[in-house]
């Protein structure tokens, strides 16, 4: 239940003065449906209104003057403006008003009355000083209405910044003093103001500097937000820990399967398996993420855990976002497991009729121990004999409900996620705060690095020629066209054009996949490529994460400068899987900005996905919301991923401490923290987005 103290902030925006049926939808679009959302708007700049006299006016500056009204000049034709002459001790100025209200001017500002005016002044040469539509024009008694430093808010058509500011000021007046939810010692050390003081400063900046992300009030608000989120995640983690789950020990079976593999585990794989086994043996539900580049060996690690589960009499479901990925996982693990008597089935949307019924029977009876598949795995008529572990590949591609439906097929099912999307270490907590993370940051030996080079678009013909030669000698290549315009149709056209062009130079073995195709049609083309029947695959959308085509050795990416680095890294990871030399060509539209050049350069220099993700974040300076969202960064209001990254770790530590000491949030600070969580809506429900 929402604490009473928050009621005024969760009232609808229509409760603000001046927000009626016309304005409400605009304000909702800009901020959100409740007063809190208006309170949380941030000014993006400030206007300094310098007090001045007319003789000290500066052309183009925003200034405030104390003047007396001298006379009015009515327009001769209605398309012309009204003019009003004013003066102070030092000179004259003309105020200019367009529009039809001019006739009321004289009533509102009679000759000889005193006014404080503020706005942009312009020097009109022989016509003297002029101000078009002053921002403010008030009686001397109301001079306080004109801020010397005015925060400027985002606006939208029909809702100008100054009107938005009026609503923000009123929202601020509704904000109560809150019980302090932060640790006092920490507040002092960081010199953080109280919550309300922080908001007052946010909306009443004393200058540019107050807009800075590192100013104490901005850091305080960001820390509040981060703590609310980290708390929700720590709570979820603790809740899962409290659920008893099957205790599963390391098995001889798994060790036999491992001994049969034609390779030894890397150190990183060993560590990941050790982590998983510790979780499985603890008697609590596991929630672990194994993170590592494509091909780093996550699936075989998961396979060993599946063998442990099978040896203990349980079943595992391995779910992948696409059919082709599911099939590849199946191909990786089925034979090694089956060789030691662990039954594995593949279940996808393609299974129909009697064959499907047979597979379902085998699952329900416990005749098979592992089911690999797609969404088909959690359909209502799929039942397990004893599901004890769910492994989800690229979990962010699934909805929470979908993952839960899968886990609901057993009791207290251990959860293991696998992800090949590199995320900078500093942001890990914001994305995976409620999972334990094992990183596989070491590649299996014997992989040849991918020779990477950047080339300007005008040299594309050269690339095509080289590609033709490579294909003639049996190579396979990906050719990626980015989504660049707003319109998917024109992007598709560009890709179709490229595919057509390559067909004419290379021949009929050029295929095309794009976002408008049905998943089945996409899978079919991908499969043709994987089986070697296509030599070049042109793709508009990112090639399915994790698809393994060992024979593919060339990756061409058009307009590479438009991709996030992590994404480029993942794309490049599609090649270089075998022992043959591989190449990646990053085509760009010249000229490249200095930052763009640096970004592409990193890819040439390193193959470490985490380092790349981290550097990308630094270079982007946090501005690229889209790239961040792709890596799973939450949609925070006050937190900036770069500027506030030190706070992320601190909030994570704090949340762990709090939940450790006061799991029910029952202490005085605990109660205040509940208010904080409600304030930011980062309650368990929201955190659900992030985990199984
Ligand atoms: P991921 O799931 O991280 O993409 P996989 O587990 O599917 O990686 O492994 C990719 C390929 O590399 C598979 O063919 C697998 O057999 C092989 N592989 C895995 N671990 C090693 C290793 N330590 N040494 C050599 N090859 C390995
Ligand atoms: Mg894999």
Automatic annotation (TrEMBL):
Domain Helicase ATP-binding intervals: 279-440
Annotated Helicase C-terminal domain residues: 462-618
Alphabetical list of SUPFAM superfamilies matching this protein: Nucleic acid-binding proteins, P-loop containing nucleoside triphosphate hydrolases
Lineage of the species this protein comes from: Bacteria, Pseudomonadati, Pseudomonadota, Alphaproteobacteria, Caulobacterales
Keywords: ATP-binding, DNA damage, DNA repair, DNA-binding, Helicase, Hydrolase, Nucleotide-binding
PROSITE patterns found in the cross-reference section: HELICASE_ATP_BIND_1 (PS51192), HELICASE_CTER (PS51194)
The keyword Zinc belongs to this UniProt entry's keyword annotation: no
GO BP terms in the entry: DNA repair
Keyword ATP-binding carried by entry: yes
Positions of transmembrane segments: none
Domain of life: Bacteria
GO molecular function list: ATP binding; DNA binding; DNA helicase activity; hydrolase activity
Name of protein: ATP-dependent DNA helicase RecG
UniProt organism field: Phenylobacterium deserti
Gene3D superfamilies: Nucleic acid-binding proteins, P-loop containing nucleotide triphosphate hydrolases
């Amino acid at each position: 239940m929402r604490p009473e103290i928050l009621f005024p902030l969760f009232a609808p925006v229509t409760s603000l003065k001046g927000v009626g049926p016309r304005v409400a939808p605009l304000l909702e679009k800009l901020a959100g449906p409740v007063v809190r959302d208006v309170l949380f708007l941030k000014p993006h700049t400030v206007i300094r209104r310098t007090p001045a006299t007319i003789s000290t006016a500066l052309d183009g500056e925003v200034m405030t003057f104390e003047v007396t009204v001298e006379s009015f000049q009515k327009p001769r034709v209605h398309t012309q403006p009204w003019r009003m002459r004013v003066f102070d001790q030092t000179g004259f100025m003309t105020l200019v008003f367009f529009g039809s209200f001019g006739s009321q001017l004289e009533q509102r500002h009679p000759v000889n009355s005193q006014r404080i005016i503020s706005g942009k002044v312009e020097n009109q040469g022989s016509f003297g000083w002029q101000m078009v539509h002053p921002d403010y024009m008030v009686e001397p008694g109301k001079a306080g209405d004109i801020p010397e430093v005015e925060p400027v808010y985002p606006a939208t058509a029909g809702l100008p910044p100054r009107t938005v500011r009026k609503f923000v000021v009123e929202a601020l007046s509704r904000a109560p003093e809150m019980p302090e939810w932060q640790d006092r010692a920490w507040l002092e050390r960081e010199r953080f103001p109280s919550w309300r003081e922080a908001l007052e400063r946010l909306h009443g900046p004393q200058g540019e500097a107050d807009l800075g992300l590192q100013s104490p009030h901005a850091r305080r608000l960001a820390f509040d937000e981060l703590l609310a989120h980290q708390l929700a995640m720590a709570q979820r983690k603790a809740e899962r820990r409290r659920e008893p789950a099957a205790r599963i020990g390391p098995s001889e079976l798994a060790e036999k399967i491992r001994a049969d593999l034609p390779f030894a585990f890397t150190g990183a794989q060993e560590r990941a398996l050790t982590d998983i086994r510790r979780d499985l043996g603890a008697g609590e539900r596991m929630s672990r993420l194994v993170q590592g580049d494509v091909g780093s060996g996550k699936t075989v690690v998961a396979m060993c855990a599946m063998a442990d589960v099978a040896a203990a009499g349980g079943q595992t479901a391995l779910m992948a976002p696409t059919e082709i990925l599911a099939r590849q996982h199946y191909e990786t693990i089925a034979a090694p497991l089956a060789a030691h008597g662990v039954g594995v089935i593949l279940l996808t949307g393609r299974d129909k009729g009697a064959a499907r019924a047979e597979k379902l029977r085998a699952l329900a009876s416990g005749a098979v121990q592992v089911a690999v598949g797609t969404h088909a795995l959690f359909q209502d008529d799929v039942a397990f004999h004893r599901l004890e572990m769910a492994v989800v590949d690229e979990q962010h591609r699934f909805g929470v409900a979908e993952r839960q439906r899968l886990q609901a097929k057993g009791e207290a099912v251990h959860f293991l996620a696998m992800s090949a999307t590199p995320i900078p270490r500093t942001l890990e907590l914001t994305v995976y705060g409620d999972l334990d993370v094992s990183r596989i940051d070491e590649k299996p030996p014997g992989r040849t690095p991918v020779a990477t080079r950047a080339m300007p678009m005008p040299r594309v013909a050269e690339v095509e020629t080289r590609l033709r030669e490579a294909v003639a000698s049996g190579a396979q290549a990906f050719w990626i066209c980015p989504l660049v315009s707003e319109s998917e149709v024109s992007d598709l056209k560009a890709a179709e054009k490229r595919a057509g062009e390559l067909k004419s130079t290379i021949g009929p073995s050029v295929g095309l996949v794009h976002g408008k195709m049905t998943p089945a049609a996409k899978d079919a083309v991908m499969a043709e490529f994987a089986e070697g029947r296509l030599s070049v695959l042109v793709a508009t959308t990112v090639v399915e994460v994790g698809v393994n085509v060992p024979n593919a050795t060339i990756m061409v990416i058009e307009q590479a400068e438009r991709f996030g680095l992590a994404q480029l890294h993942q794309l490049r990871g599609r090649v270089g899987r075998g022992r043959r030399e591989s190449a990646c060509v990053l085509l760009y539209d010249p000229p490249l900005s200095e930052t763009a050049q640096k970004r592409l350069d990193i890819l040439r220099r390193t193959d470490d996905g985490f380092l790349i993700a981290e550097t990308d974040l630094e270079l982007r300076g946090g501005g690229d919301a889209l790239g961040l969202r792709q890596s799973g960064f939450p949609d925070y209001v006050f937190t900036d991923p770069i500027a506030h990254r030190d706070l992320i770790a601190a909030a994570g530590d704090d949340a762990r401490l709090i939940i450790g000491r006061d799991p029910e949030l029952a202490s005085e600070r605990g109660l205040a923290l509940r208010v904080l969580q409600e304030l930011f809506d980062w309650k368990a429900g929201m955190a659900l987005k992030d985990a199984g």
